[in-house]
Structures are given as structure tokens and as C-alpha cells.
Amino acid sequence: xxxxxxxxxxxxxxxxxxxxxxxxxxxxxxxxxxxxxxxxxxxxxxxxxxxxxxxxxxxxxxxxxxxxxxxxxxxxxxxxxxxxxxxxxxxxxxxxxxxxxxxxxxxxxxxxxxxxxxxxxxxxxxxxxxxxxxxxxxxxxxxxxxxxxxxxxxxxxxxxxxxxxxxxxxxxxxxxxxxxxxxxxxxxxxxxxxxxxxxxxxxxxxxxxxxxxxxxxxxxxxxxxxxxxxxxxxxxxxxxxxxxxxxxxxxxxxxxxxxxxxxxxxxxxxxxxxxxxxxxxxxxxxxxxxxxxxxxxxxxxxxxxxxxxxxxxxxxxxxxxxxxxxxxxxxxxxxxxxxxxxxxxxxxxxxxxxxxxxxxxxxxxxxxxxxxxxxxxxxxxxxxxxxxxxxxxxxxxxxxxxxxxxxxxxxxxxxxxxxxxxxxxxxxxxxxxxxxxxxxxxxxxxxxxxxxxxxxxxxxxxxxxx
Length: 466
Known about the structure:
Oligomer: single chain
Structural class: alpha/beta
Number of strands: 10
Distance between the termini: 41 Å
């Protein structure tokens, strides 16, 4: 672990305490401010010196619960995950402090201050940790705090990781060497880098590597005190948590296809219905304006209805706003059209053009803003689609899928998904399938919320858009 990262991890403890005390003092000031006192007169006696005494002692209770909540782990967690932990930890801390006050018969007189402390503590701690995170990322852009790694495996995955780390140093990795296999020459290179203090970790990025090479690399990393990362083979290794049964006295392991079984499916369907109704209500004005603009530009049906393959390989009629000329889908099979304009996803089941001549002027705008996809909310409402999932598949595309690629049909297609927020049109088909499979195998309600939150950000900044 880099010293600078340890420094920031240790720094969080005193900073959290200062911010918590500051949040409590701010809550006290708000309660006794003239504006609030005019709305809700103060009918209790709470001197500031008595309040600050309780606050400074309660701050240690907060820190203890923060520690038990995993808010002081060295490894940086997702921003959204950290925020949820902050909310839960602050809530639990408030409950514990009130419980201590109750049993010590020192009842607190102001419910307003208690609620204000709760709210301000969440906001202040979240902002503080976000600023620390941004400072760390800024320092990484200057090469400070980077974990220097050797990538082993000149595979497509290895090359992709190398380019990603080079393009995004804020992630925290710097590639200092990239070799094909873990051999004696590789060991010599790593040891030479280690003697110069220029390597911190090894990353195996070859899904086809044999077990002996994995053991050798892991043993070497342990002996040389280097961190070890392994890019697991996507399909068999990324399976969801297995379930162990005992049958006839023998342990039998079941590997479920997805957590979206049982209560997972019930939760996701309820989430889809509620959110679809909310989004339909909010986006109705945009849909009406888009429909009028499309009709004025090209009179006729403003919707495009086409067959798609959904969950379990079943076909359904897919609904979107029309954004292309009439019979545009036929051109993708026209040899002369393909010869003239090409196909950016040639060699895969997909067809893609960045500057597609079939798209109308208004259609280009609704596509750019993803308004053409809003009618899909009605498909979500009736259960043909989900808000989150793999992209909808055309029958002619599915016909060309390889067996492992057809696993994306395990669940309903989604309006957005991991592939959409992870690169949209910038991804090649194999990368898209890998992201979709990761979602299928690792689904959780929280993962849905993260993807839903990221979607408008991706649309606004246009990453990978048409």
C-alpha cells in the first residue's frame, strides 16, 4: 500500500471528527437563528457550552460506529457505496447517542437539533470525503499515489487494461511493464524494477492462463511483498455465489444463473413498475414535443415498431420514436449500401454507423438526447423490458450470436445497462457482452440504482452516443 494512500486513510479519522462537531455546531446555530426562532420559538434551555460538551463526547461514538461500518477501510470503495454507508452509520450513531441519553435519564430537549445534526452530518461528511477523494485523484494525475503494476498477458483484455490505466491515471494504476507470460525473464524484469522501487503489484490479465502460472505468479508476489491481481475468466469464474446442497450425504454445489430469481425478480419488477410510472409522468412533455417535431418533418407514424428478442429468446414488438427514413432497417442487408458506407462493427452480429445517412435531422437530435428511447418506458410498464438490463436484440443479430453470447437473453432487455453507462457505442460487441454478463451474474438493487444514476450523466456528456 502506497504511503500517500495510508496517509489519506489515517487523515479521515481526525477530519471526520472535526466535521461531525462542525455539523453539530451548525445545527445548533440554525436552531437558534432568528429566522428559525421566529417560525418555531425556543421553549427550552440549552447553553452552548453544555451542548458542545455533549457533542465532543458523542463524536467518539460516531467514529466508533463509522469504524464498524467499514468507513475506514484502506481500499477505496465506490462513491455511491460510501454514501450509503455514511447514511447508515450516521443514523445508527444518532440512535446510539439517543439510547445512551435515555438510559442515563439525560433526555435531549430539541428534536429539531437532533434531526438537523443527522442531516448536516450526512451532508458534511459526504462532502468532506468527496473532496478528499478528488484531491487524491488530482494527485494521481501528477503521478503521486499511483500503484505501479506489471501486467502479464498481452491479450485483448491486457491491452484494454493498459490503455485504460494510461488514459485514466486517477484510477490509481501506472503500468511499468507489460509481458506476455510469467517466465524467468519476467521475474528478472520485476526484480530489477523492485530494486529500483518501481513496482508495487502484479496483474495477470490472461483468462486462458494455466493453473501453474497462476500459482507461480501468486507465490512470487507473496514472497516479494507485491500486491496480486488476477483478471478472472469472465463466464465461469464470475458466476454468482454458489448454493451448497447436501444430497445422499454428498455436498452438491448449485451455481444459479443470476440473483434475479425468487425475491430478486419480485423486487426488480416492482422497481420497474414504480419507476416507469414516475418517468412516464416526468417525460411526457418531451415525448409530445418529439412526436410533433418528427411528424412535421416527415408526416406519418412517429413510432418505429420492430421485432426484438427478449428474455428466454421470446420475440416481442419493440417501440421507439422513429428517427430514420422509411424502411431504414432494410439497408443494413443491402450489399451496395454496406459497400458504400461500411459497417463499424463488421465481423460481429451488430451493424453500426456513426454518421448514418438513414437518420433524419430531427431523428439525429432525439437520438443525441436519447429521447427516441423514451417510449420504451411503456414496454417496461407492460413487462416486455426492464429499466436496467442488456440492450434489446434483433432476431437477425441473435441468429449470429455464439453460444456463450446468448446468455444475455437470461433476463429482460433494458432501457439502459452496464454496457450503456460503460461506453455505449464505443464498446465492441465482446466487451458489451462481458459487461452484460457481469450484470446478470452480480445483480443487486444497489447496482440498478448506480446504473440508473449514471445514465443521464452519460447521455448529457454524450460518451459513446450515436
